[in-house]
Amino acid sequence: MNQSLPLENDPLAKKITLVSSETIACYGFDPIFGHPKIYLNIPLDTEVKCPYCSRIYLRTDLV
Ligand SMILES: [Zn+2]
Fold this sequence. Notes:
Blueprint: E1 16-19, E2 23-26, E3 38-41, E4 47-49, E5 56-59
């Protein structure tokens, strides 16, 4: 079986951004594929996925 997965389902494409604050602003970080600036509320030790760009933020006290 040589099955290719869509990029969004590829675990290697999963990017996690570590943050230390409860509220972060995401705007896509790309001039072409960016999105309107939104704010995400991230509980401690929790992963939150941006609904626009699917970037994953993990809040931790370690950064
Ligand atoms: Zn985003």
